Amino acid sequence: MSFDPGLKRIHEILLEIAESFHQVCENNKIQYYMLGGTMLGATRHKGFIPWDDDMDFGVMAEDWPKLIEVLNKDLPQYYRVRDIKNTRGISNPSIKIEDVRTIIQETDKAGENDIIGINIDIFPLNYTNERKSFFSKNGLIENLIRLNLCRFLDYRSKPLIKRALSNIYKIILSPFPKDFLISIIQKYLVTNNGNCITNYWGAWINKEIVPAEVMGKPSKYVFENTFFWGVANPDEYLKHLYGDYMKIPPENKIHYHVLDWKYRGDYKST
User: For residue 214, is it within any domain?
Assistant: First the structure.
């Protein structure tokens, strides 16, 4: 079957997955937040950023075990929870909810990764403090996360030095289990207390540390033809991540996650 790169249909499928995630959370009284570009889209566009091809949500760490349990139990059968244990392309504690009726080609992913469908990302959120110096716990966490990324991401398109370092790290870490560095981070470094909330596993790592009152109690935002829950103070949150977040970036600054997608041969498109 030929590829259909149309973003409109990707947005429709993402929205269907997100609505199922939302309903499971509502039914089980689990609070969540839209994060990153999804929160930006809700604020600036009342829906998707026009060129965006993913959705990001966050759930507090104390609700994480319950979330995994109810998602595996209550999601429709054509959705699958992907995690570090069942998916080679996932190298941290976040999860993806995948529509198994689809297949995507992703950017920055090595060829040995599993085939995966259109999906949304959900991240565990932790309490922490505002300290980010090199020898602080947050600083050590960031350095270990960057090392972990070098092990698993495809850096063939990166500058020579970054490619070389990535290859060295891959060799050094290859004897260790996939979750080796993640286990060290979670067991010895993540304290889950403090006056800030962070998504350690997001794109900006420690830049995602924000005061807890900025996240606050989840607020309702219109998103396309439905609504989702987001941060209490979107202006402060988005300024922290993006600066002038109302300014549309130039074409060369736009990053795409999905190169192409198609329906699986054993499912009919709708």
Answer: yes
Per-residue pLDDT tens over the stretch 173-217: 999 999 999 999 999 999 999 999 999 999 999 999 999 999 999
Residue 16 lies in a domain: yes
Give the phi and the psi of residue 112 in degrees, each rounded to 5. -85, 0
Number of domains in the chain: 1
DSSP-H helix ranges across the chain: 7-27, 36-44, 64-74, 137-152, 160-173, 180-184, 212-215, 234-242
Q: Is residue 31 part of a domain?
A: yes
Task: Considering only residues 200 and 255, tell me which one the structure prediction assigns the higher pLDDT.
Answer: 200
Over the stretch 137-169, which tens digit does the pLDDT of each residue have? 999 999 999 999 988 887 777 888 888 988 998
Q: Read out DSSP for 45-93? A: TSS--TT----EEEEEGGGHHHHHHHHHHHS-TTEEEE-TTT-TT--SS
Helix, strand, coil shares, percent, the chain, to 5: 40, 20, 40
